[in-house]
Design a protein that fits this description.
Layout: E1 2-7, E2 12-19, E3 23-31, H1 33-37, H2 44-62, E4 71-77, H3 81-98, E5 102-106, H4 107-113, E6 126-131, E7 136-143, E8 146-152, H5 158-168, H6 175-183, H7 208-220, H8 225-254, E9 258-262, H9 269-282, E10 285-287, H10 298-310
Parallel strand pairs: 1-4, 4-5, 6-9, 9-10
Antiparallel strand pairs: 1-2, 2-3, 6-7, 7-8
Pfam families: TsaD (PF00814)
Protein name: tRNA N6-adenosine threonylcarbamoyltransferase
Enzyme class: transferase
């Protein structure tokens, strides 16, 4: 079974070809970072229009070897409604033209299963930390489609907090990677920010208060590059420590011995080092996708779609998109 995967949930146009026997055959990604940089964030209408311009040429390039396609998977949500509809319309239309089944994939399930594209891959069951610009969740994964949300952010997601904090410090877009690079030259002992919601029981997160701490600290200091770097380091350390504390608590609560890190913030090297140390101390295996598959991509959609199509799921001729789509609604 050979599946074409299409990802257009936000500002990345991704396509990939996955074969259940041969694995990932190819993938391509177009980023809209330069388009949105002058606005300091994603402009939904511009994102939709750029997906329209880029998606078909990417698919043509990917399928230049005249591959036989057995199914089409596209991101159906959550995400920006206009961007989602571009991928859904193209994906469902191609499936109808080729007379093959189509499946709408949950974006976060794609992230959750992206680690399965690596060697070695985790085995079920495992604990997953989904940490991206739109989501921060701890999920107990029993099997594909069997997900229990143990905890999530009650306000900003971790990636969103990175981007907003970077903007407060006057860094460029995208802010998260820029802040992480700046933090490398920061002194970890100059400032200390709180680790939100770690002094109370439970597995939920809250990152909005950290932005306020950054703002008040930045306004109270001499605003030079070293101060900026020191604040960036203190902020990054606070987020990483908070994520690690909650992961340790969830591993102790569930007794699971595998931890999967997925989503764009999973590419953060400080987070990877910290959780690798946590894994060694607890005797837990820690898994990540390669950095290019931490951010939005077509490969994760192709893989998740292949599993669901192989299980007999498919979409009717009518299609839709869900900008809000709780993972608990998946079967």
């Amino acid at each position: 079974m050979r599946i074409l995967g299409i990802e257009t949930s936000c500002d990345e146009t991704g396509v990939a070809l996955y074969d259940k026997e041969q694995g990932l055959l190819g993938h391509a990604l177009y980023s809209q970072v330069d388009l949105h940089a002058e606005y300091g964030g994603v402009v939904p209408e511009l994102a939709s229009r750029d997906h329209v311009r880029k998606l078909i040429p990417l698919i043509k390039k990917l399928l230049s070897d005249n591959h036989t396609i057995d199914g089409v998977a596209y991101t159906a949500g959550p995400g920006l409604i206009g961007a989602l509809l571009v991928g859904a319309a193209v994906g469902r239309s191609l499936a109808w033209t080729w007379q093959v089944p189509a499946i709408g994939v949950h974006h976060m399930e794609g992230h959750l299963l992206a680690t399965m594209l690596e060697t070695p891959a985790p085995s079920f069951p495992f604990l997953a930390l989904l940490v991206s610009g739109g989501h921060t969740q701890l999920v107990q994964v029993a099997a594909v489609g069997k997900y229990t949300i143990l905890g999530e952010s009650v306000d900003d997601a971790a990636g969103e907090a990175f981007d907003k904090t970077a903007k407060l410090l006057g860094l460029g877009y995208p802010g998260g990677p820029a802040l992480a690079r700046l933090a490398e030259s920061g002194n970890p002992n100059t400032f200390h920010f709180s680790r939100p919601m770690t002094q109370r029981p439970g597995l939920n997160f809250s990152f909005s208060g950290l932005k306020t701490q950054v703002l008040t600290t930045w306004q109270a200091q001499e605003q030079n590059e070293q101060t900026r770097a020191d604040i960036a380091r203190a902020f990054e350390d606070a987020v990483i420590d908070t994520l690690a504390i909650k992961c340790r608590r969830a591993l102790q609560q569930t007794g699971l011995k595998s931890l999967v890190i997925a989503g764009g913030v999973g590419a953060n090297q400080g987070l990877r080092r910290h959780l690798a140390e946590l894994g060694k101390k607890m005797g837990v295996a820690v898994y990540y996708p390669r950095p290019i598959f931490c951010t939005d991509n077509g490969a994760m959609i192709a893989y998740a779609g292949a599993l669901r199509l192989a299980a007999g799921q498919s979409e009717p001729l009518a299609f839709g998109a869900r900008p809000r789509w709780p993972m608990n609604d998946l079967n």
